Amino acid sequence: MATPSKEARERAEQKFRKKEIEARDASKAMAEYQAGLVAQREKTVRLRALREAKEAAEAAARAAEPPPDPPVTKRASHRKSTAHA
User: Fold this and answer.
1) Please, what sign has the CA dihedral across residues 18, 23, 28, 30?
2) What is the SS3 assignment for the chain?
3) Which of 6, 32, 60, 63 lies 20 to 30 angstroms, CA to CA, from 23?
4) 2 CB-near residues (< 8 Å, 6+ apart)
């Protein structure tokens, strides 16, 4: 039969091992979370650069186009009334 002090020591060791595993898992989870943030920031920077390059190319293409012809408007005809009262 195990003595009470031996049982207490075994429980304490199990508790300690469990805490070590939890700490290792927490550290690993935090590292994965931070790596995800870095990847997200890098992707955002890359996509922003692509969007800005596309917008600059579109602006350059618009600047190279000749200006559109002004719209044709009809002039209102002002007829003089022939009937005098």
Assistant:
1) positive
2) CCCHHHHHHHHHHHHHHHHHHHHHHHHHHHHHHHHHHHHHHHHHHHHHHHHHHHHHHHHHHHHHCCCCCCCCCCCCCCCCCCCCC
3) 6
4) 10
Q: What is the pTM of this model?
A: 0.52
The single residue listed with the structure tokens 């186009």 is 65
The tens digit of pLDDT for each residue in 18-58 reads: 999 999 999 999 999 999 999 999 999 999 999 999 999 99
What one-letter code names the amino acid at 63?
A
- Token pair, residue 46, equals 């890359």
